From TrEMBL:
UniProt-recorded name of the protein: Helix-turn-helix domain-containing protein
Taxon lineage: Bacteria, Pseudomonadati, Pseudomonadota, Betaproteobacteria, Neisseriales
Gene source species: Leeia speluncae
Ranges in a coiled coil: none
Pfam families: HTH_18
Residue intervals of the HTH araC/xylS-type domain: 220-321
Gene3D superfamilies per the UniProt record, alphabetical: Homeodomain-like
UniProt keywords, alphabetically: DNA-binding, Transcription, Transcription regulation
Amino acid sequence: MPLVENLTALARRASYVVSKNLEEQALQFTDWHLQYKQISSGRFKGASAITQLSGVRIHVEALNTRILQKGGVPEGTIAVGIPLELEGPANICGEQSSKDTLHVFSCFSDFEFVSPEKHLVANIELETKALCSTENQLLAKQLQTSLSAPAILLQPDAATQLRNMIQQISKISAELPVHDMALQASWQSQLERRVMFGLLESITTSSDAIKEDLKLRKSWQVVKQVERLLENPETCVTSIAELCVALHLSRRTIQYAFEYAIGMNPVSYLRAVRLNHVRADLLNGESVTFAATQWGFLHLSAFAQDYYKLFGELPSITQKKFK
C-alpha cells in the first residue's frame, strides 16, 4: 500500500496534514526544536497524522526522500518512534536502524536521525506532567529509565505487537467520552497505561540488542566532525581532499565512515548539505549568485542542475518564495 494511502487509513480519527516543504513538516512536531535537511533527490512531500489525547500524542509521519533530522524534544517529554514502513539505510545518533528498531528521540538532549527513502514512522510522545495520575507519572519514569539507548532492537513479534497497539489506539481515539468528566479521566488514564506498558513490554533486554557498536560510534564521530565544518561558510569544505586535510584522515577512512554511519558517500553528503544551506539563504532573501557562491558553488549552471535534481525546482523559483 502506498505511503500516503497507508497513512490516511491510520488517520481516520486524527488530524491529517500534507506538507509541501521541509519547514512545514518540521513544524508538525509541536514545541520540538527541529531542523530538516534533504539529502536525496526529488521534490519533497511529507504528511502527518496526529492523534492528541491529553498527555499522549501519536504522530505518524510519512516522508518521500531521505532527510537528516536534527533537534531535541520538549523538556519533560518521552519521545519514541516505531517504523511502520522503513526501507533503506537509516540511522539515529550514529546507530543503525531497521524496521524493528525503536527510535528513542528523548534519549539525549539532542538527536540526529537520517531517514530512509521510504519512511513511515509512528512517533509516540508522552508529556509526563500532563499524564492523568501520579501512578502514571511514576510509570513514565520507569519507562524513561528503560529507554537508555537511541536505538533499541526489538524482537520481531514485539515490534509487530507494538505497531498493532498504535493502530488500535488511533482507531479508538474517537470513543473518548467527552460528556462525562469522571469517565473521561478514567478512560484516558487507562489509555496512557496501555501505551506505556506496551512500550515496556516491547523493549528487549537482550545484550545483543542493546550492545554498543564501537566501530559505528567511531564512524559517527567522523560524520559529526564534518557536520561542524559545514555549519559555517568560512569553514565549509567542498571536497574529499579538503576533508582529508581538515580532519587529518585518509580518503579511505572518510569514505568508510560515511558509508557505514549514514549509508551514503561523503561527496553526495557534502553537496546535499551545502545545497540545503543555499536553499535556506534563498528563503531568507539572498540572491541566487551570492547564496551559491558563499557555500562553494562557483559553477552556477552546474549548481542549478544539482539544485533542481535535489529539490525538484530551480533556485530562482525558491528565491521567489521569499516574502
